[in-house]
From TrEMBL, chain A:
GO terms for molecular function: ATP binding; ATP hydrolysis activity. PANTHER family: ALIPHATIC SULFONATES IMPORT ATP-BINDING PROTEIN SSUB (PTHR42788:SF13), TAURINE IMPORT ATP-BINDING PROTEIN-RELATED (PTHR42788). Keywords: ATP-binding, Nucleotide-binding, Transport. This is NitT/TauT family transport system ATP-binding protein. It comes from Nonomuraea wenchangensis.
UniProtKB/TrEMBL annotation, chain B:
Belongs to the binding-protein-dependent transport system permease family. It comes from the Bacteria. Its main location: membrane. This is ABC-type nitrate/sulfonate/bicarbonate transport system, permease component. It comes from Nonomuraea wenchangensis. It is a multi-pass membrane protein. Residues 63-247 form the ABC transmembrane type-1 domain.
Length: 271, 261
């Protein structure tokens, strides 16, 4: 999947020296609820093919930020562009995976119908929608469960359905909002590795929001550390860990421990 | 008979036994003269009368009339109440604007409007349907408004983020979310519509079981009054039982109905 022409333009206010293609361009994003300032001047680039982890202390404006990035909430200052298009409403270049799978899947629809639903409103044929649904469910390992209802599946499998739904949508950017925060530890490890596999196979761009430091390091190529509210970006750290990553070997590396300490400190935890 | 009685949710043997004991008690009270025969015919007479009725064609025409007036009103009332209720439930300002009107009209018993209806629509089926329709409308409307608010905001945001357009979200998300409320409203409204239909027949002379009760009364056919009244009660039970499996089927996904895993 190589880049097409016309999308490589960058924000005129801050010329980008990097020759990679920015999929997500955030400049001076601000948002407040009433008199409470939640997001203060967030400026961020995510480039095509990246997997970026975004961590912040709990209660910081992570979710608010994602809602602004995805056009679900209007922002009051700055600009957000996805694939070169300014975000004013939810863009069709974006796929979202929420933390709360049991609420984001529709219980009266089968697994396959949940995945297929958003495709009905895309300009694609019924046959293509069918193929994309089957392919997405296959790639998350749910080909045998397509006719079940979501609530007949375990939590981890339900979150796979939500991931398949986003994959079938063929987004340019996949935003995942603490997707594995409500599954057990064993399932979480499996879903992390599934995310890495899908990312590598599909050449996707993923922004992965989490409050789990180890998860952020294990998955990310870069880590964006946010501050407490009013939220801004504290630090962006490159993660120089070899890929493919491995739950045991990668986490045993000295560099992993060093990064953990850095992120921990950046988050404002002092020894 | 047996297959009907073993059907789920119909009275089991305990209930049958209590009905039988009650009938025998009333029979005993009547036979011994403790209950005045002038006002209380023997249960055995009533049952015989009921038997005569159900084997005659006129009775079934009346049943059809009463059911028809109740169900047509229910269908029309629901057809208006569901879209209106979903709209009002989704747009709080609209709901606030019309709430005083709804709260003023809703408590007025449909029967109180009977003279108005007789003046304008006469004593035919249409007059009865106006009243059964109105009583159903209020019942379903209030629950449809409440049901529309049961839509999960996370599910809504998910569909918004995937570009599902507003009307499609109403059809695919808001309506199914409201369905448990709406179906409860329809089930209760069906029983109420039948009560309204029979009352309207009794007081206004629209054709149906109510009119037959009135006719029996005027002819001094006491067993007939009781037999028709029992028939009306059984019809009410039947209407309720018909809705239970429909609800079960449409709401199998709902958390209250999922089989424990």
């Amino acid at each position: 999947m190589t880049e097409t022409a016309g999308l490589s333009r960058t924000s005129p206010s801050s010329p980008d020296k990097d020759d990679r293609v920015a999929i997500l361009e955030v400049d001076g994003l601000r948002k407040s609820y009433g008199s409470e300032l939640v997001l203060e001047d967030i400026t961020l680039r995510i480039f095509e093919g990246e997997l970026v982890s975004i961590v912040g202390p709990s209660g910081c404006g992570k979710t608010t930020m994602l809602r602004c990035l995805s056009g679900l909430l209007p922002h009051e200052g700055g600009t957000v562009r996805i694939a070169g298009e300014e975000v004013t409403g939810p863009p069709d270049t974006l796929g979202l995976v929420f933390q709360d799978y049991s609420r984001s899947l529709l219980p009266w629809l089968s697994v396959a119908d949940n995945v297929r639903l958003p495709l009905r409103y895309k300009p694609i044929s019924k046959k293509e929608a069918e193929e994309r649904t089957a392919e997405a469910l296959e790639s998350v390992g749910l080909a045998a469960h397509t006719r079940k209802k979501p609530w007949q599946l375990s939590g981890g499998m339900q979150q796979r359905v939500a991931i398949a739904r986003a994959l079938a949508y063929h987004p340019r950017l996949l935003l995942m909002d603490e997707p594995f925060a409500s599954v057990d530890a064993q399932t979480r490890v499996e879903l992390e590795d599934l995310t890495l596999r899908l990312w590598a196979e599909r050449d996707m761009t993923i922004a992965f929001v989490t409050h789990d430091i180890d998860e952020a390091i294990y998955l990310g190529g870069r880590i964006v550390v946010l501050t407490r509210t009013p939220t801004t970006i504290r630090e962006v750290m490159p993660v120089d860990l070899p890929r493919p990553r491995d739950q045991i070997a990668t986490k045993a590396l000295d560099e992993f421990g060093r990064l953990r300490a850095s992120v921990f400190t950046a988050l404002g935890h002092h020894q | 008979m047996r297959s009907v009685l073993t059907w789920r949710r119909l009275p089991g043997w305990r209930q049958l036994l209590s009905i039988l004991v009650t009938l025998l008690l009333v029979q005993a009270l009547s036979v011994t003269g403790l209950l005045s025969r002038d006002s209380f015919p023997l249960p055995s007479e009533v049952l015989v009368r009921l038997g005569e009725l159900v084997t005659g064609a006129g009775f079934w025409v009346s049943v059809g009339d009463s059911l028809g007036q109740a169900m047509l009103g229910l269908a029309l009332g629901t057809a208006v109440a569901v879209p209106l209720g979903l709209l009002l439930g989704r747009f709080a300002p609209a709901e606030q604007a019309v709430r005083p009107i709804i709260e003023f009209l809703r408590p007025i018993p449909s029967i109180a409007l009977l003279p108005l209806v007789i003046l304008t629509a006469g004593v035919g089926m249409s007059g009865s349907v106006i009243l059964t329709g109105l009583s159903s409308l209020w019942m379903v409307l209030v629950l449809a408004i409440r049901g529309a608010r049961a839509t999960d905001p996370v599910a809504e945001q998910t569909l918004v983020s995937f570009g599902v357009p507003p009307l499609a979200r109403v059809w695919r998300l808001v309506l199914p979310s409201a369905l448990p409320f709406i179906l409860t409203g329809i089930r209760i409204a069906a029983s109420v519509a039948l009560v309204v239909a029979i009352t309207v027949e009794l007081l206004g002379g629209m054709p149906g079981l109510g009119k037959d009760v009135q006719a029996s009364l005027q002819n001094g056919d006491k067993a007939g009054v009781y037999a028709y009244t029992i028939a009306a009660g059984l019809l009410g039970l039947l209407v309720n039982f018909v809705f239970v499996p429909i609800e079960d089927r449409l709401l199998s996904w709902h958390s209250s109905r999922r089989a424990a895993r």
